[in-house]
Amino acid sequence: MIQITLTDGSLREYDQPLSVYELAASIGVGLAKAAVAGRVDGVLVDCAFLIEADARVSIVTPQEPDGLEILRRSCALMLSMAVKQLYPRAQLQIGSALGDGFFYEFTYERPLTLVDLAIIEARMKTLVATNHSIRRRDPSLRSTPFETLSPYLMGNFECVTVGPHVPATRVLQAFALDHISGTSSQRIYGTCWSCQKELEHWRAPPHVIVVSMDDRQLAYAQSVTEALRRIGVRATADLRHEKVRHKIREHSQNVPYLVVIGEKEKEGGFVSIRSRTGEDFGRMAVETVCEWLKSKGLARV
């Protein structure tokens, strides 16, 4: 007999091992449909993970940060499959969730264009419609984010990646590709959300764009973005692996304010803020920026 303790403290008993997905289905059809992963004794695992002993288990859905990150990580995997199908000579390198979305890096004999980007996105939508399973070669192994690489199969396409991943491509309904950069080594960037409504909200013109100087500030830049969102500011983070001057020049004519974050800002717990007209307001603590934006009428809380 296997005893499983759920998040609400309730206890369920099963007379044989069962997967995370089967556990979710035993609780409710809606939960099984929404499940993207499980948390077994605090460790994130795929829906196919087999529970063979007493454990504390929660079902992970896109409504929590870990679930949304798993969606985005799986979108990066689906992007790699689409690129390889369309451009067989492309050499895949690395992909990951990133901020509000995901990226995949690869090398190819020519620079891809915005026309290619639209073609790749269309292929990804086809992969969603045809609903390919995503499964780890050895589903009994546990995994945690950013820890170990494992071979995963998306349909018949194999890629070494960090899991967990969603159980099938049909889960990935609300995504879009928005940037491509580089020449020989190229990166495609996209965004992914739990539903179309969230994607459309993300597409609304932002009040503020948070710009990181390099990859060392990614987590801090995203946390600043989330802090601004919590007070009702429409904020987006540009975490692309691009020169900061390029990112500032690209956004300066489109948004009221730019928040720039470098290593000094991260270490000091503050940000630098400027307007699209070039006015420099200097460095401020994150809490001060929130109050300042409220005074400008941009916050809605």
TrEMBL record:
<keyword id="KW-0436">Ligase</keyword>
<feature type="domain" description="TGS">
    <location>
        <begin position="1"/>
        <end position="61"/>
    </location>
</feature>
<keyword id="KW-0547">Nucleotide-binding</keyword>
<dbReference type="GO" id="GO:0004829">
    <property type="term" value="F:threonine-tRNA ligase activity"/>
</dbReference>
<dbReference type="InterPro" id="IPR018163">
    <property type="entry name" value="Thr/Ala-tRNA-synth_IIc_edit"/>
</dbReference>
<dbReference type="InterPro" id="IPR012676">
    <property type="entry name" value="TGS-like"/>
</dbReference>
<dbReference type="InterPro" id="IPR004095">
    <property type="entry name" value="TGS"/>
</dbReference>
<keyword id="KW-0963">Cytoplasm</keyword>
<keyword id="KW-0820">tRNA-binding</keyword>
<dbReference type="Pfam" id="PF03129">
    <property type="entry name" value="HGTP_anticodon"/>
</dbReference>
<dbReference type="InterPro" id="IPR012675">
    <property type="entry name" value="Beta-grasp_dom_sf"/>
</dbReference>
<dbReference type="InterPro" id="IPR047246">
    <property type="entry name" value="ThrRS_anticodon"/>
</dbReference>
<keyword id="KW-0694">RNA-binding</keyword>
<keyword id="KW-0067">ATP-binding</keyword>
<dbReference type="GO" id="GO:0000049">
    <property type="term" value="F:tRNA binding"/>
</dbReference>
<dbReference type="GO" id="GO:0005829">
    <property type="term" value="C:cytosol"/>
</dbReference>
<dbReference type="InterPro" id="IPR004154">
    <property type="entry name" value="Anticodon-bd"/>
</dbReference>
<dbReference type="Pfam" id="PF02824">
    <property type="entry name" value="TGS"/>
</dbReference>
<keyword id="KW-0030">Aminoacyl-tRNA synthetase</keyword>
<dbReference type="GO" id="GO:0005524">
    <property type="term" value="F:ATP binding"/>
</dbReference>
<keyword id="KW-0862">Zinc</keyword>
<keyword id="KW-0479">Metal-binding</keyword>
<dbReference type="InterPro" id="IPR036621">
    <property type="entry name" value="Anticodon-bd_dom_sf"/>
</dbReference>
<protein>
    <submittedName>
        <fullName>Threonine--tRNA ligase</fullName>
        <ecNumber>6.1.1.3</ecNumber>
    </submittedName>
</protein>
<keyword id="KW-0648">Protein biosynthesis</keyword>
<dbReference type="GO" id="GO:0006435">
    <property type="term" value="P:threonyl-tRNA aminoacylation"/>
</dbReference>
<dbReference type="GO" id="GO:0046872">
    <property type="term" value="F:metal ion binding"/>
</dbReference>
